Amino acid sequence: MPNLYFCQPHAQNQGMLRAVLTVEDCKYLVAPSSAVYVGEEFPTIANKRDAAADFAVLRVSAEEADGDWRSGFYRFDADLMEINAVLLRLAR
Prior knowledge:
By secondary structure, the protein is α+β, with helices and mostly antiparallel strands.
């Protein structure tokens, strides 16, 4: 199942597992077209500008890859509180 991580560089949090999702939940949470594919390795903080902004990372395994999501890591910038609210709705 895809994993969702919250990254808060200003708090020296490089990635905390927040949720384990279904592929269908991923599509509800973030459109595949709005997530940036960053490859097969978890993204790192590249520069000072990135260090200030929180972001989320989605990991899709090879078994879960489909026409919308390929295997690897996706980064997307979003308000983590808003993502958390969506996760709470999905849990109901």
